[in-house]
Design brief:
The protein is mostly helical. It has five helices and no strands.
């Protein structure tokens, strides 16, 4: 009795990966084992870097807020502590945007916190 293999399914599985690796350089786009390994590693990087992106943006926002409040004689940590005590619920993204794009509104927030 001959061996039964489901060539349709295995071919489709390989084709799916090879379609996803279009545009890769050299053997990474057309050799099955190399393409599969490259694609899987890319998925690991994508998963990891979605977390890193959040971390990097938070760091950027903190840097921008710190630069904005230094002009008014405060540090970032002191400013954030005062914000919490005053009950002002603005997130770091919004504060950083105000510090960069709307300095007058940011100054009003700093003045409100300093009182």
């Amino acid at each position: 009795m001959s061996r039964s293999v489901n060539h349709v399914a295995s071919r489709a599985r390989r084709k799916k990966i090879l379609n996803r690796t279009k545009g890769y350089f050299g053997k990474r786009k057309n050799v099955w084992t190399v393409a599969k390994n490259t694609w899987e590693k890319g998925q690991q990087y994508a998963y990891r870097d979605r977390k890193d992106k959040k971390r990097a943006f938070r760091s950027l926002w903190i840097t921008r807020i710190n630069a904005g409040v230094r002009e008014y004689g405060l540090s970032y940590s002191a400013f954030m502590g005062m914000l919490g005590k005053k009950g002002i619920a603005l997130n770091r993204k919004a504060l950083a945007d105000l510090a960069m794009n709307n300095p007058m509104a940011f100054k009003a927030i700093v003045d409100l916190v300093k009182k």
